[in-house]
Amino acid sequence: MNKLLFAGLLLALPLSLAAAPQSVNVPLPAPSATPSAAPTAAPTAAAAFAQLDPAQQRQRRSDYAAWRALPEGERERIRQAAARFAALPADQQQRLRAQFQAQDQAFREGWRLGPQLGAEFPKLHGLFGFVPPQQRDAVLAVLRQLSPSQLAQLALVAQRTPPQERDSVRSAFLTVPAAERDTWLKRQAGQ
After folding, report:
1. Residue 99 pLDDT > 70, yes or no?
2. How far, in Å, CA of 93 to CA of 8, rounded?
3. Over the chain, what is the mean pLDDT?
4. Other beta carbons less than 10 A from residue 127's beta carbon
5. What is the largest CA-CA distance in the chain?
6. What is the rounded distance in angstroms from the CA atom of residue 16 to the CA atom of residue 139?
7. Neighbours of 100 (CB within 10 A)
8. Rounded distance between C-alpha atoms, residue 77 and residue 29, angstroms
């Protein structure tokens, strides 16, 4: 399946699936409400949240935290994709949802990192899919600093790294100063 198709689907899900929160696997943006609509919208959202079972509430909180962690530029890209997705016919939306849900969970979860990292996450998963929780924020900060070409090089490094060397390669990468990352990536990727 085309990466862009899945990217568009995932990026559109936060807004288009608001009516079916149980099936949402991506962060939901805060709704933009007019001041006059805010008093009636908040109790409705709170009531809907209260109706969810504890696992669904945890998922929603996790989705929202992932959404808030994204840079604003990536959130805007997601909003635009959601608008395009919402404009599709209902049968096409459903077909895209089904295709996305049929994908491996690791693939789907990678898109929670946003459009830029989500596109490369299946390739980066070997090095960064199992980062200790205490390192997660630092790792994401470094990954979000990378250019698309650097991410592509890092994906190549990740794919070529044997499982027994992943921790040491990841640690080495994270210690490289930003000014030296291009050189390190090129050397590791054999370019």
Report:
1. yes
2. 11
3. 80
4. 21
5. 59
6. 30
7. 21
8. 12
Of how many residues is the chain composed? 191
Phi, psi torsion values for 27, nearest 5 degrees: -65, 145
φ, ψ of residue 103 to 5 degrees: the values are: -75, 160
Q: Residue 71: CB partners within 8 Å, gap ≥ 6? A: 114, 144
Residue 166 confidence (pLDDT) above 60: yes
181-189 vs 166-175: helix crossing angle, rounded to 10: 150
Residue 45, judged by CB atoms within 10 A of its CB (0-12, 13-18, 19+), counts as: middle
Pairwise CA distance, residues 129 & 105, whole Å: 12
Q: How confident is the model at residue 43 (pLDDT cuts 50, 70, 90)?
A: low
Residue 91 has pLDDT above 90, yes or no: yes
Q: Where are the alpha helices (DSSP H) in the chain?
A: 3-16, 38-50, 54-69, 72-86, 90-101, 105-110, 115-128, 136-145, 148-160, 166-175, 181-189
Copy the structure tokens of residue 34. Answer: 């007019």
Give the separation between CA 135 and CA 126, rounded to whole angstroms.
16
Chain Cα centroid distance, residue 167? 22
